[in-house]
From TrEMBL:
Keyword Membrane: yes
InterPro entries, per database record: DNA_repair-toleration, Leu-rich_rpt, Leu-rich_rpt_typical-subtyp, LRR_dom_sf, LRR_N_plant-typ, LRR_R13L4/SHOC2-like
Entries under SMART domains matching the protein: LRR_TYP (SM00369)
UniProt cross-references to Pfam families, sorted A to Z: LRR_1, LRR_14, LRRNT_2
Source species: Setaria italica (Foxtail millet)
Claim: Ubl conjugation is one of the keywords in the record: no
Keywords linked to the UniProt accession: Cell membrane, Leucine-rich repeat, Membrane, Repeat, Signal, Transmembrane, Transmembrane helix
Main location: membrane
Membrane topology of the entry: Single-pass type I membrane protein
Protein name: Uncharacterized protein
Amino acid sequence: MAAPSIALATVLLLSLASPATSCSEQEMSSLLQFLAGLSEHNGLSASWRNGTDCCKWEGITCSADGMVIEIFLASRGLEGSISPSLADLSNLQRLNLSYNSFSGGLPSELLTSNIIIFLDVSFNQLSRVLQQNLSSSVPDHRSLQVLNISSNLFTGEFPSILWENKFNLVVLNASNNSFQGWMPSSFCISSTSFAELDLSYNQFSGSIPSGLGKCSALRVLKAGHNNLNRTLPDELFNVSSLEYLSFPDNGLRGILDGAHMMNLRNLAILDLGGNMLNGKIPDSIGELKRLKELRLGYNDMFGGLPSALSNCTNLIAIDLKGNYFSGKLTSVNFTSLINLEVLDLLYNNFTGNIPESIYLCSKLVALRLSGNNLHGQLSLRIANLKSLIFLSLSYNNFTNITNALHGLKDCKNLTVLFVRGSFIGEAMPEDEKIDGFQNLQILSISECSLSGTIPLWLSNLKNLVMLFLYMNQLRGPVPAWIKSLNSLFYLDISHNNLAGEIPTALMEMPMLPTILLDPRVFGLPVYADPSHQTRITSAFPIVLNLAYNNLTGVIPQEIGQMKSLTALNFSYNSLSGEIPPQLCSLTNLQVLDLSNNILTGAIPSALSNMHFLSAINVSNNDLEGPIPTGGQFSTFTNSSFAGNPKLCGIIVDRHCGTAEPPPVPTPSTEKTDRRVAFAIAFSVFFGLGVLYDQIVVSRYFG
Ligand SMILES: *[C@@H]1O[C@H](CO)[C@@H](O)[C@H](O)[C@H]1NC(C)=O
Ligand SMILES: *[C@@H]1O[C@H](CO)[C@@H](O)[C@H](O)[C@H]1NC(C)=O
Ligand SMILES: *[C@@H]1O[C@H](CO)[C@@H](O)[C@H](O)[C@H]1NC(C)=O
Ligand SMILES: *[C@@H]1O[C@H](CO)[C@@H](O)[C@H](O)[C@H]1NC(C)=O
Ligand SMILES: *[C@@H]1O[C@H](CO)[C@@H](O)[C@H](O)[C@H]1NC(C)=O
Ligand SMILES: *[C@@H]1O[C@H](CO)[C@@H](O)[C@H](O)[C@H]1NC(C)=O
Ligand SMILES: *[C@@H]1O[C@H](CO)[C@@H](O)[C@H](O)[C@H]1NC(C)=O
Ligand SMILES: *[C@@H]1O[C@H](CO)[C@@H](O)[C@H](O)[C@H]1NC(C)=O
Ligand SMILES: *[C@@H]1O[C@H](CO)[C@@H](O)[C@H](O)[C@H]1NC(C)=O
Ligand SMILES: *[C@@H]1O[C@H](CO)[C@@H](O)[C@H](O)[C@H]1NC(C)=O
Ligand SMILES: *[C@@H]1O[C@H](CO)[C@@H](O)[C@H](O)[C@H]1NC(C)=O
Ligand SMILES: *[C@@H]1O[C@H](CO)[C@@H](O)[C@H](O)[C@H]1NC(C)=O
């Protein structure tokens, strides 16, 4: 009988050591009721045992006199309902149940308690509409100051009656639910200290309530990603305490009124991107001396950049993409914007040169000027932008690409460089002195109609993962040294005048997707693992595109080594000989285009074993014999094989006689489903040819 006496002694010792901290029977009972409401307690009951001191239970904190003051059970894997019994804990001030799987309703007793100050039930699956009719017997003093019900499944109208009076709320986060109807507005009737409201990612519609103008202490107001579709109410601009004003991706209309705007002197973040605002950026923007982020992208705004912007010396990010802004960039003196890291002017109508003063913004990380009417040469002083990671100059009328590359090669941190549809008709710089670009990973010099050859200096860019040189007029061979670009997994040199044979050395490229991009820039890690932002997802295509050139000779048998390829396009060349059977070992291939060559012989029947192949085009060659059947081939149509008069089979409606090959079994449904998904993903590639990478890449990079 040693064990029970030791246990007894332990209990005695503990109670002797801290006699005052053991919790009351009543409090323990409230907690056990909560435990009983759980359908999955994930081991919590090992610690929460009846008869033991609940102040020592996991997640419980007591005051010196043994009253439960805090329950912290975030990320504990709990499921079930939240028991209203927690409201019986008469000293509970902080309750944090975030990141679990609680479902059902949020007991109104917790909201109307006159003790609880912090209530965080975010990231659960609570769904029941918060109660609308709290009885008037509720005590007048409601203590709740911070309420986080974000990322649950709440629906319906926001129960604003809850907040009409008696509340002293300071912070409310109700983002990422499915609340509908009007945005609630009456927070500040009773609470003069209301400071933060986040209603983003809901379905609120109509106008932003003018009642928010009464919130004299409001610092943060976020309601992005809703359906708010009226104008910004004038009253909102009375709230001079505002530091963070964010309504992206709504349908807001109207203009930014200069006279009102200047009241928001404390504003640090203004995000109104993705709305339907029009009008100009008011000159009074210069009064917002604390402004760090100005985001007005994707609206219908026009006019020039106000020179007063130079006075916002704390600006870190300016995003004006997708508007109708025009005029010269020189209207702003960028010299004073020494903190600027991101300048995004994609798709506007700016004219003139790049102002010299931009080259003094030495903290610039991302500069996107694509899709404007800028012209002239880049200054060699662009080499001052030592922090630059991302630069896009695409679709402008810049001149002297040699000069531009010489300036940029010393931007040691440059990772992504887009030069598309600019420097039209110039010569590809072949100068060996272009020897920098140590960290360049993605390079596009495409749609420029450049003459010349694929330049040798590219062979020094050992970190390249994607290289786009399509739609130029490059002549000469495909150089064998491309294989030394060990990290490359996307090569598109289509639509040029390249001639000669496909070098077998090219087939030695490992083509393995790894990429490391700085997540600060334009949400670049669209391609990367969202949690680590370093690895590309396997969904990203691994591409070799040599289409629309003047290549001759045979398809090297060594093609079978490029096992990771997902898309191979050799179409529109003058390739001859047979389709090498080794192609069939490219088991990841989803798209194969060998059309419009002069290939002869039979289609290797093993091609029908390539389970992921969702599109094939061998049309307009001189192939002969039976078209393989079964497998993926059961899904292809006539157009994949047209223009080969000697091919036979059901697909082309030409009988093969005795040489009919045995059918391969059709793939399982699972594989068919995957194939369909790939087919959708790649139909763009197939349908639009080279436009594919523009869409994928420019959508995110510009
Ligand atoms: C806890 O133990 C007490 C006394 O043993 C008992 O009365 C009570 O019902 C128990 N509570 C629960 C929830 O089991
Ligand atoms: C609740 O806990 C989570 C996880 O530790 C934490 O991120 C959050 O800030 C807490 N909530 C409050 C209101 O302190
Ligand atoms: C409103 O209050 C009544 C009585 O107090 C209650 O029966 C009813 O369930 C409440 N309705 C809602 C939606 O909470
Ligand atoms: C919930 O929101 C509050 C207020 O914004 C915040 O302090 C808390 O960290 C949030 N909780 C989580 C889990 O993010
Ligand atoms: C705003 O949206 C509602 C529906 O969500 C619609 O009825 C109303 O006409 C819209 N108002 C404007 C100004 O577009
Ligand atoms: C910047 O502010 C100063 C004083 O605050 C003012 O005199 C000047 O005109 C402003 N500059 C511009 C370009 O608006
Ligand atoms: C731009 O501002 C800097 C200082 O902020 C000043 O020295 C320079 O003269 C200004 N340039 C122009 C063109 O106004
Ligand atoms: C861009 O500016 C040019 C002249 O500067 C004008 O003709 C053209 O209509 C503008 N385009 C748009 C979309 O505003
Ligand atoms: C360049 O990148 C490195 C590594 O990310 C960083 O430590 C360094 O500060 C950057 N240089 C500049 C000038 O921003
Ligand atoms: C581009 O610039 C060149 C020379 O500066 C000029 O001749 C040409 O008209 C410009 N093209 C467009 C579309 O602005
Ligand atoms: C282009 O830039 C190079 C190098 O900076 C320079 O030598 C050359 O004169 C420039 N060409 C033209 C036409 O301006
Ligand atoms: C393709 O190459 C052949 C000879 O190899 C040449 O006659 C023809 O002009 C070239 N076509 C083009 C478009 O360069």
